[in-house]
Specification:
about 75% helix; Rhopdopsin 7-helix transmembrane proteins; globular; 14 helices; GPCR_Rhodpsn_7TM; receptor; vasopressin receptor activity; about 350 residues
Length: about 350
């Protein structure tokens, strides 16, 4: 959603309406790389999920259900945010007219909101599954679906203000642009702050809380298991080998995967959110060399960077997805032999 805010651009355009073509080429290169990586990566994840379900003939586990929706959200980010911004940077000025302006601006933050809230509900789901495993049984499937569908609805609702804020405006004689207009004095600050809270800060707080509780629960469980094993070494060791632990290795692996996703989500969101808040709240920002330089422009393009990173994390942590994808491209007929007992989700 780069350049969504007028504060990200110079408000005074030169009379001949020109731009830095060297910097523009870098912008186009960065956006193209992000778009292709996002498109290819998330398409491969969706293909692997389809292949797994089609040939293994089993329903998705809850974790695969969340991965499915997160991949769709990341793919929508590439199609609705990065691709329109890439076309916009190529043409320099917005060429779509009034209706397309509002449609694009409605769609640009949608994938970003959705991805954040899918991550959030995934964390909540894992928190209940690990910290309250007995009370979690029975209603989990319905609860998980309701949380995901709620994330979709909330993302749509939060995008509605974009329709009223952005319009196809003549910013100088003969120069038209898809432009944000704030009629209240502090409207721009209020809206950017609201966006930062809803898209980043609120999910961040939930993620930190839930995964802190999850890590504490796993550590406590491991510590208790160690005490039992120390007191009853021979007997306990034998019994441990003959029953499934309350917190399995597959569960721990899934938590590790999601924590990596969340960590990169935080790292890749900070540059864009930080730049926008600084440019909006600092009265001296518009006169700063950093604001008018290339670094600020490039950083403002990285809001969707997490969407091109997530799918490769899934493949790195999930052997079953890699196997399904390998089998699809190698045209192996007997898929059932390659799956075995390699499930890593629950």
């Amino acid at each position: 959603m780069s350049h969504d805010w007028n504060s990200s651009l110079s408000s005074e355009w030169p009379p001949d309406d020109v731009r830095d073509e060297y910097l523009a080429r870098w912008e186009i290169a960065v956006l193209t790389s992000i778009f292709l990586t996002t498109l290819i990566g998330n398409s491969l994840v969706l293909l692997a999920l389809y292949t797994r379900r089609r040939y293994q003939r089993r329903k998705f586990t809850r974790m695969y259900f969340f991965i499915l929706h997160l991949s769709i959200a990341d793919l929508l980010t590439g199609l609705l945010d990065v691709l329109p911004q890439l076309a916009w940077d190529i043409t320099f000025r917005f060429q779509g007219g009034a209706v397309l302006c509002k449609l694009i601006k409605f769609g640009q933050p949608f994938g970003l909101y959705l991805s954040s809230y899918i991550l959030t509900v995934t964390a909540i789901d894992r928190h209940y599954a690990i910290c309250y495993p007995f009370s979690y049984c029975g209603i989990t499937s319905r609860r998980s679906k309701m949380m995901v569908y709620g994330a979709w609805m909330l993302a749509v609702i939060l995008c509605i203000p974009q329709i009223f804020i952005f319009s196809y405006t003549e910013i100088s004689p003969g120069v038209w642009e898809c432009w944000a207009t704030f009629y209240l004095k502090y409207g721009e600050r209020a809206y950017i702050t609201w966006y930062s809270i809803m898209q980043f800060l609120l999910p961040f707080i939930v993620l930190v809380y839930t995964y802190t509780r999850i890590c504490m629960s796993i550590w406590t469980s491991s510590k208790m298991s160690g005490v039992v094993d120390l007191k009853r070494r021979n007997k306990a060791s034998f019994s441990q080998r003959n029953r499934d632990p309350l917190i399995s290795k597959a569960m721990i692996n899934t938590v590790k995967q999601t924590i990596v996703v969340v960590t990169l989500y935080i790292i890749t969101n900070i540059p864009f959110i930080g730049c926008e808040l600084w440019a909006t709240w600092d009265p001296k920002a518009s006169t700063s060399p950093f604001f008018t330089g290339a670094a600020f422009t490039i950083l403002s393009l990285l809001n969707s960077l997490t969407s091109c990173v997530n799918p490769w994390i899934y493949f790195a942590f999930n052997k079953e997805l890699r196997t399904a994808l390998t089998n699809f491209f190698c045209r192996k007929k007997d898929y059932s032999l390659t799956y075995g007992n390699h499930n890593v989700s629950f």
